[in-house]
Specification:
single chain; alpha/beta; Rossmann fold; 2 domains; six-stranded mixed beta sheet; 7 helices; binds adenosine-5'-triphosphate; ATP hydrolysis activity; transport
Length: 264
């Protein structure tokens, strides 16, 4: 039985986006992310963007986050406003951190950008740190952290800034099995913190990323057409594959993974 939910207003709309350098990279990109309302949960959206290497995922990621202007078309968020740099929290693959600042200094800087936290920045940092198992690391510099800890600091930074959109580039790469489980838990926790939170994940680890998503967009090329477009959108809620622990082991999940691989 399909999990009870409704899809409401558009929270991100990509319209006719194209990107051309010396040749077309992206063309006719159209998709929409809607606010999912799930009774009893503050369920946010988790979207995975999949495509083979070199297809244009990073370029689309940059366009979505306002860091790169498309050649044509537009990306709008909140009441049809065009997205601009800074609207979205971006977590790059290498978890870029200010190496010369302690974790706490970086987090405080992020929290100060969020007007909603005025006066309670330090308290909020302590609460998140506890939740993310970073309490003992607040005084350290980034080079004294493990990969998993750096990742958690990056995510915390974006959450403190108050971004409703968090884009993650390869969030699972370079993590050992144990850390991978923790990263998954953490993203699920973030996605359940507010029904307006949207995570957009670009990953080569299809199984892990699809297992925590509600929607998959597959970027690919079509015969005779230059440039990549969204070849397929898979609604995992409709397939009853979303929001379930242990889904990775189920046959029908693995069938969807095979189907996705068929599009690459
Ligand atoms: N500044 C640029 N000028 C010209 N071509 C570019 C530029 N930046 C990227 N490209 C090209 O755009 C294409 C898409 O690159 P992109 O990095 O988005 O791929 P990707 O899907 O993220 O790949 P991967 O999974 O390997 O990271 C590539 O063919 C790349 O050569």
């Amino acid at each position: 039985m399909m999990t009870q939910h409704t899809k409401e207003e558009a929270i991100l709309q990509v319209s006719n986006v194209a990107l051309t350098y010396d040749r077309p990279i992206l063309r006719d990109i159209n998709f929409c992310i809607r606010n999912i309302v799930r009774p009893g949960f503050s369920q946010g959206q988790v979207v995975t963007l999949i495509g083979r290497s070199g297809i244009g995922k990073t370029q689309l990621f940059k366009i979505l986050s306002g860091l790169q202007q498309p050649t044509s078309g537009q990306v709008t968020i909140h009441d049809n406003q065009p997205v601009k740099a800074g609207d979205m929290g971006v977590i790059f693959q290498n978890y870029y951190l200010f190496e010369w600042r302690t974790v706490h200094q970086s987090l405080l800087l992020a929290a100060k950008k969020n007007k909603a936290l005025a006066g309670k920045e330090k308290q909020t940092i302590d609460e998140y740190a506890e939740q993310f198992h970073l309490t003992e690391h607040l005084g350290l510099y980034p080079n004294q952290l493990s990969g998993g800890q750096r990742q958690r600091v990056s995510i915390m930074q974006q959450l403190l800034k108050g971004s409703n959109f968090i884009l993650l580039d390869e969030p699972f790469s370079g993590l050992d099995v144990c850390m991978l489980d923790k990263a998954v838990e953490l993203l699920l926790q973030v996605s359940l913190s507010d029904d307006l939170k949207t995570l957009i994940i670009v990953s080569h680890d299809i199984e892990t990323s699809v297992a925590i998503s509600d929607t998959v967009f597959i970027l690919g090329t079509e015969p005779g057409m230059a440039g990549a477009t969204i070849k397929k959108e898979i609604d995992l809620i409709d397939r009853d594959l979303a929001w379930q622990k242990g889904i990775k082991q189920e046959k029908r999940f693995l069938e969807t993974i095979e189907e996705i691989k068929g599009y690459l």
